[in-house]
Specification:
10-stranded antiparallel sheet; 15 strands; Chromosome segregation ATPase; 3 domains; 10 helices; alpha+beta; 3-stranded antiparallel sheet
């Protein structure tokens, strides 16, 4: 399947752009109200805490001023008999205000500790909504995959980043461990070994690593690889790293590829196929992926309420293709793409500017701003439509 504009030139991303755009509109419509509800909860919390703090401070000030005033009156009258009365007033005031302060302080702590639980659930909902989209819907993103394995468990992480936006997924796998054979098939690497019946001599021996466990794997979209292998006894360890047909092999910390004799026995063509085999493994063996963190300019975008700004970064990526679709399309009110089958059969898919703007306008000012970034700001047309409905 090939994705092309109406003028038959290829899209810069070979994906169903109209479907991705619809998904982006859908998650935007869900996420922005969720984030706004968190902001509202935090504002109400801040106001409530500020009011309680002012009450407590007001009581403290009243108590201090009352004591100052009474002491001043006692000094002015200069009658010793009023001192017990003054002390009784201050004691009664202190006891009553003290009880009230304790109630207010308890309420303050309850609001301060309880509110995060309220919006933490909404934050989890935001991550859940974005999880299905960010994994593949962010165009132009660099990605890094990481995997750790032992004899009975595999865990992994995927990280993506573009234009200050960064997101992380935790991955689970269908298998309990990862061997060289499962990932790469057959792999043998050379090493020195002492051999001979009468006289032991150092000779090169090829070691079959098929049953070795892959304990750590790192891979990125530039096809850079770093991989750690070890046998079941964990007394033999190899490391493979590199990319772009240039790979380095180590046994423990000794580089095999720098050894002129050993290096000639390494099948570099076989190592060069590692990236595509890693890609195939991740495509078929990841059972679940869960969005765990989103950052914007290295700040936690969820806890600092910057998800809207993250959506604007994505909208900028999509806006470029929207404008190309409009420029290369026949109808300037529609974002249209063509899908070409292997046999040359072509079908069209489209979404109108009016449809995009209408859905985003329902979100509010944030949605209208994203519509502007996408380049589908048709407010006059939408107003006319609403007027006709009225």
């Amino acid at each position: 399947m090939k994705y092309i504009y109406q003028d038959s030139t290829e899209l810069p991303v070979q994906r169903d752009f109209t479907e991705d755009l619809r998904t982006f509109l859908d998650i935007t419509s869900q996420v922005i109200p969720l984030e706004n509800s968190i902001i509202e909860i935090k504002c109400k919390q801040k106001e409530a805490l500020h009011e309680l703090k002012n009450k407590i401070e007001g009581m403290n000030n009243f108590e201090k001023k009352l004591e100052t005033l009474l002491r001043k009156l006692v000094n002015e009258i200069d009658v010793e008999d009023v001192i017990p009365c003054t002390n009784a007033i201050l004691q009664t005031c202190g006891e009553n205000l003290g009880k009230r302060r304790e109630i207010l302080k308890a309420e303050y702590i309850n609001i301060e500790n309880g509110t995060p639980d309220e919006y933490k659930k909404i934050e989890e909902r935001i991550l859940d909504v974005l999880s299905r989209f960010l994994i593949a819907g962010v165009y132009g993103a660099e990605k890094r995959f990481e995997l750790s394995s032992n004899t009975n468990d595999i865990s992994g992480e995927m990280e993506g980043w573009v234009s200050g936006l960064q997101y992380r997924y935790t991955l689970t796998f269908t298998e309990e461990n990862l061997t060289v054979e499962k990932l790469l098939g057959s792999l043998s690497l050379p090493g020195w070994a002492r051999a001979g019946i009468l006289r032991k001599e150092e000779k090169i021996k090829m070691h079959n690593l098929s049953d070795f466990l892959i304990t750590f794997l790192e891979y990125d979209t530039k096809k850079n690889v770093r991989m750690f292998l070890e046998n079941k006894k964990a007394n033999r360890k190899f490391r493979i790293e590199g990319g772009d047909h240039r790979y380095f092999v180590y046994e423990d910390d000794k580089e095999i590829t720098s050894d002129k004799e050993l290096g000639d026995f390494i099948d570099m063509e076989n190592l060069a196929r590692i990236p595509e085999k890693i890609q195939a493994y991740f495509r078929t063996s990841v059972s679940t992926y869960n969005l765990s963190k989103i950052f914007l300019d290295e700040e936690d975008a969820v806890s600092t309420n910057q998800i809207f700004d993250c959506l604007k970064v994505i909208a900028e990526q999509y806006g470029v293709i929207v404008q190309e679709c409009l420029a290369k399309g026949h109808n300037k009110e529609e974002i249209t793409i063509k899908m070409e089958e292997a046999d040359g059969t072509r079908t069209e898919k489209y979404i109108t500017k009016t449809e995009i703007y209408a859905q985003l306008a329902e979100v509010g000012s944030e949605g209208i701003e994203i519509a502007g970034i996408l380049g589908v700001d048709s407010r006059t047309q939408i107003k006319d439509k609403k007027y006709l409905i009225v």
